[in-house]
Known about the structure:
This protein has helices at 3-22, 56-70, 84-92, 94-101, 116-124, 152-169, 193-213, 244-254, and strands at residues 75-82, 106-110, 132-139, 174-178, 216-218. By secondary structure, the chain is an alpha/beta fold. Strand 3, helix 6 and strand 4 form a beta-alpha-beta unit. The protein is globular.
Amino acid sequence: MTIMKRIAVVLVVVVAVTCVFGAASSTVVPETEAVSHMESRNRQPGRGDGIFGDYWWANRFLSRYNRIMEWRGKTVDVVMLGDSIVHFWEWHHPESWARFCGRRRVLNLGYGGDRTQQVIWRIENGELDGYTAKNVVLLIGTNNNSAQDTKPENVVKGIAKIVAMIRAKQPKANVVLMAIFPRGRNAESKLHAAARGRNDATNVLLKEYAAAEKIVYLDINARLVDESGWVPETIMKDEVHPTAAGYDIWMEELSKVVK
């Protein structure tokens, strides 16, 4: 089955599958389950234009598959795996992205809105196959923590599963696990303050996990906040996604640990 037919099939059945698995045992940790976002629709220009119309996530998956096919059998210097924070670096700040890429071959596997579940699904469906990665950088979890009932320990379980999958698919890669970025302008931020607390709690556990697994843990959060401990507008205008200045900070720190 071609990748286009495969995506089309997923688009047709995804709602029914979600209903079936929604009735699964409550003992399952949702953050460790593979779930696509093939049903996601958005008319925002440029977010994921393609043959699937406004099913932007499906278009994004196909575009990433096509890029992987272009690099099949080759070495990719850095694979960036994650959510919109990864996605928007290349999309919204191409000059900063170009500076980071330089002479490197860099594969951006960030998708807006993704949680650990979608990254697991994407790896299961080939996003780490067909090439050799020198470095895999993982930043995921802030969307999980947007939900009020999310438990940081479960987010870590999801991330641990992803790391295990990276190691299985790309055993020679240097794995760089990012601390989840801070979010929110201040403690009164209705949309972000509580999620920021869950991110911080998750990061405490992630640092311990990375030390036990002997993988690189990169925490640049001290450089993304001001003296108040919150994110200034110059670094994250919308309180979540870095500005070009924020991405340049990430680039500077990341360049120290990628091989």
